[in-house]
Structure formats: C-alpha cells, structure tokens
Specification:
With 268 residues, this protein is of the alpha/beta class. It has 8 helices and 10 strands.
C-alpha cells in the first residue's frame, strides 16, 4: 500500500446469495484513491460499480479482500465503528435521494448531526447544527427552498438537498452513486459542476459511480469495471490532480447493451 494513499482496496470479492443461487459481482478488484482526487467508476449495469462503492463506504463487507482508509484497515471493523466512520468521515449521495418525506429540506440536511448527538448534547448544540445546515443549503443554491418538503422540490433540488446532507458532517470522502441518474441533462450538469467545486475549492475527495462517460471524463481519473474486474489499468496519483483524459478514455465506447442505467436502483 502506498504511503500517501487515502483509500486502498485489495483483491475485493463479493458474492450475493439467494437460496441456492450465488451471483459473483466483484472478482478481485484492486484500486486506490489519493486525497483530493475526484475519481469516477464506470461500467455497464451489473458490472459491480455500486457494489464496489458500498464496500468502500462500509455499507457492506467484502467476502474476500481488504480495505484501508488513512492507512487503517476498515473492512473488519465492528458495526458500531463502521457506523461512526460513515457518520463522521464519509458522506453519501444516492441516485434516489433518500430524503425523509415528512421532514423539510433543512431538517433532512440536519439528520446526520442529530444521529451523532445525544439528546442532551443536541439541546445544547442543535442551534449550531441548524446554522451550519442553513449555510450549506445556501451553498447549494437552496436558501429559498429550505423549509419545503421533498414533494415540493424538483429532482435537482432534492439532489442538492442530498448533497448538503452529505456535507453536514464535514466528510473527508464523498461517495456519489449515480448522482445524475434521475435528472435531466442540464440539471445533471449543474450537479456535477457543484461536485467539482466541492472537490476543487473544499478539497473533498470524491468517488463517483456513473454510467455517463461524458461526466466521467471531467473527473481526475476513471476506473472501468467489466464483469467484476478493473479493465482500465490504474493511473496512480495523477499529476497535480488536474483533469486526466487519457486517449484510451476518449475512445471508450458507449455500452450498446446497457445505454441507460438511470432507472436501476442502487445496489448490485
């Protein structure tokens, strides 16, 4: 493992089992992410993109393999320690937003800080959390919509709310699983531009799963998964973390068999 590597995964295998049926999804994936990098993971439906993100984000455990974050192994942590890691170090953005319908946009953004607080500490620090949530809502351009329920928001506004929620805990690493999958083309570009600004200005490390190669080419580096394997060789530590667009990526074909994954639920 490289000394300066922010996150590193080695020989990841994952098999999903239902009754007597076993479905191998990841078949020996090696990868690393440098601090401050914006990494895209691309591939056809069923290639293991979302499964890989779930393993790296401690939402699930590999059957075989190891995952390191800041030089400490995390795949073998207890459930409580993985919960703490997700709440304090990681942020998550999903294709389907996962906002609680009975809460306002502002209240949804505050949830991660409520989860990490006891009742008594929340009574003392709730106002501070609220101020930070308001600041983030304004940062993502929703200062005028923070008191609206999710059903009163557009798809782009719900995704911006989800981004603010992912940032409320000051995460060092942001996982984005098909963040533009349910959005129209123009709104999707706005969301990706917001992610780029978070990466460039706030130095948030981002791992983004996407089927959209146009979006992926605007990130620092691309990993392509094919049938549970990394097909495109890793390019470690891109120079100055500028936008890396190797010729091999420019010539990556659109997947003819799976042209659109926008309705695929997060998961395998």
């Amino acid at each position: 493992m490289a000394g300066n590597t922010f996150m590193y995964a080695q020989n990841l295998h994952k098999i999903y089992r239902k009754n007597a049926i076993s479905t191998p999804v990841l078949k020996g994936v090696d990868m690393e992410v440098a601090e401050g990098e914006f990494l895209s993971v691309v591939g056809a439906s069923g290639s293991g993109k979302s499964t890989l993100m779930h393993l790296l984000g401690s939402l699930d455990k590999p059957d075989v393999g190891e995952i390191y974050y800041r030089e400490k192994r995390i795949d073998n942590l207890s459930a409580d320690k993985r919960d703490h890691l997700r709440n304090h170090d990681f942020g998550f953005i999903f294709q389907f937003y996962h906002l609680l319908p009975e809460l306002t946009a502002l209240e949804n953004v505050m949830i991660p800080l409520m989860i990490r607080s006891s009742v008594f500490s929340w009574l003392g620090n709730g106002s501070v959390a609220r101020k930070r949530a308001i600041t983030l809502m304004e940062k993502v351009g929703l200062g005028h919509r923070m008191h609206h329920l999710p059903k009163e928001l557009s798809g782009g506004e719900m995704q911006r709310t989800a981004i603010a929620r992912a940032l409320i805990g000051n995460p060092a690493l942001l996982f984005a699983d098909e963040p533009t999958g349910n959005l129209d083309e123009d709104t999707g570009r706005e969301i990706v531009q917001l992610l780029r600004e978070l990466n460039e200005i706030d130095n948030v490390t981002i791992i983004m799963v996407t089927h959209n190669l146009e979006i992926a080419r605007g990130t620092h580096r691309i990993i392509k998964l094919v049938a549970g394997h990394v097909e495109v060789p890793l390019q470690q530590h891109p120079e100055a973390f500028g936008v890396v667009r190797p010729e091999s990526f420019d010539n990556l074909p659109e997947d003819e068999n799976h042209p659109d994954e926008t309705r695929r639920p997060a998961g395998i």
